[in-house]
DNA sequence: CGCAATATTGAGCGCGATCAAGTATGGTGG
DNA sequence: CCACCATACTTGATCGCGCTCAATATTGCG
């Protein structure tokens, strides 16, 4: 029944790299083994759709590796991304039959999937999972609201610098780099994806990237390789209060 | 210790008008009586601040009546509202010491407050509350994401018609009006509040309201009394898929 | 190498912001 | 009851950021 879609057929939860950040983070060993019974892995290539808005939701999942986006589309074709899914993030909404957003892989993605019904039952009788999911959902809500500020009130330059600073710092923390000396990373998304995430057009994204390069705020090696010589300088352009954020 | 701030000192939960929609909706009688022990009412006048961003959060609360807003402010003063709190909505984030947004009453508001620590303990040992809070938070997340689409991709006219349609339909459902023949309601917020909610300026809001009036989409009697002769006509201007939304 | 997809650059325009008056509206005290 | 003032809202003139349309350049891939 459970069709293996991937080469990595099985991995023990104990060995999982998102073990202590995902929805299963606070599970006891016996809870974990129940999850282990209903989980299965799937992978999707960059560009592949994972779920379509309006479809029936057969499974929920944790992102194990790679990246995906949540987006909505207006009848006339305008697109707005409403979420970025990175390792340990949760996909799907318990208690809802239909998918509310398009979910698309922007890098090769591995998911740890749970069939929806068994997972919903586990929420009911496993408080740890429900509590963890609540905390994660509250975090997502805060991220969404910070993004509302960006979309509603920030200029194009501020939007771009916010995104670069976000991705840059996240990548650095993943690789334990220190932030002081030049930070280098790969952008996980195309110019079009950036535009849809920031509420801009491709052309404006491109122009602002060029402007930031000319101003010495960033350096580009290929379109997706970005170097930030002075992170504080970049963050001074975001419009945010920069105090205390350098600690992360 | 618990200082009564209001004339309505006490109300039995059983008689509460948000009893079956708020965070307490799925509570059993014994759980409800525990909540009843730690609850107290407070009222705030229109314009009064309820919480300030960064302050310590002493209590969480349900909105019983009236309306309040959540907003964030950039260092240079730009404001973006990130949430609208109406009766049955929940204020505060369990497990977090500091308030993440400014909370301001935009109408006279009555809150059903719970001191934070006792409430957090109840979440741990009362699954019904945690589950209800999870469902409500997921709903809020969906609303926030729909608002991201509005802020990032919609025109000023679409933004205004979305807001009017939202408030109008909600008011109608509260008063059990049928939607077909002219719908009339009071706008609960100023032009400035509308602007901050929609990511626009006051002037643009005002101009779009005038334009909609001249186009016969809305009628104005005083600045806050709004009549919508043809709701379908208004909704055709929102940019959304209008199918199926008229049922609500 | 050749093609397709992606990104950059340019010219011009228009939507919504800004700056600036002007007009209700509502509360207060004489 | 009305004159007064503060606040909220509307309207007008102009500006400029980001969009549109269009051409060119670059990248990635068979």
UniProtKB/TrEMBL annotation, chains A, B:
InterPro entries: cNMP-bd_dom, cNMP-bd_dom_sf, Env_Response_Regulators, HTH_CRP, RmlC-like_jellyroll, Tscrpt_reg_HTH_Crp-type_CS, WH-like_DNA-bd_sf, WH_DNA-bd_sf. PROSITE patterns: CNMP_BINDING_3, HTH_CRP_1, HTH_CRP_2. Transmembrane segments: none annotated. Residues 23-140 form the Cyclic nucleotide-binding domain. It comes from the Bacteria. Residues 154-232 form the HTH crp-type domain. SUPFAM superfamilies: cAMP-binding domain-like (SSF51206), Winged helix' DNA-binding domain (SSF46785). One of its GO terms (molecular function) is DNA-binding transcription factor activity. Signal peptide: none annotated. It holds the Pfam family cNMP_binding. Keywords: DNA-binding, Transcription, Transcription regulation. The keyword Transcription applies. GO terms for cellular component: cytosol. This is Transcriptional regulator.
């Amino acid at each position: 029944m459970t069709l293996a879609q991937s080469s990595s057929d099985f991995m023990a939860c104990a060995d999982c790299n998102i073990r202590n950040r995902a929805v299963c983070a606070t599970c006891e060993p016996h809870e974990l083994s129940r999850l282990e019974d209903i989980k299965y892995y799937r992978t999707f290539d960059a560009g592949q759709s994972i779920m379509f808005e309006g479809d029936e939701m057969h499974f929920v999942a944790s992102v194990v590796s790679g990246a995906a986006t949540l987006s909505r589309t207006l009848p006339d074709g305008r697109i707005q991304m409403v979420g970025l899914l990175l390792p340990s993030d949760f996909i799907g909404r318990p208690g809802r039959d239909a998918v509310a957003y398009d979910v698309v892989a922007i890098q090769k993605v591995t998911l740890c999937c749970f069939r929806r019904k068994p997972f919903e039952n586990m929420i009911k009788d496993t408080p740890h999972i429900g509590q963890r999911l609540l905390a994660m959902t509250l975090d997502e809500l805060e991220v969404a609201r910070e993004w509302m500020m960006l979309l509603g009130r920030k200029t194009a330059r501020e939007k771009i610098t916010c995104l670069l600073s976000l991705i840059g710092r996240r990548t650095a923390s993943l690789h334990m780099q220190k932030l002081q000396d030049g930070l280098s990373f790969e952008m996980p998304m195309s110019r079009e994806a950036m535009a849809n995430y920031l509420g801009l057009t491709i052309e404006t994204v491109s122009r602002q990237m060029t402007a930031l390069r000319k101003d010495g705020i960033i350096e580009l090696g290929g379109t997706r390789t970005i170097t930030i010589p002075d992170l504080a300088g970049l963050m001074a352009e975001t419009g945010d209060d920069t105090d205390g954020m350098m600690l992360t």
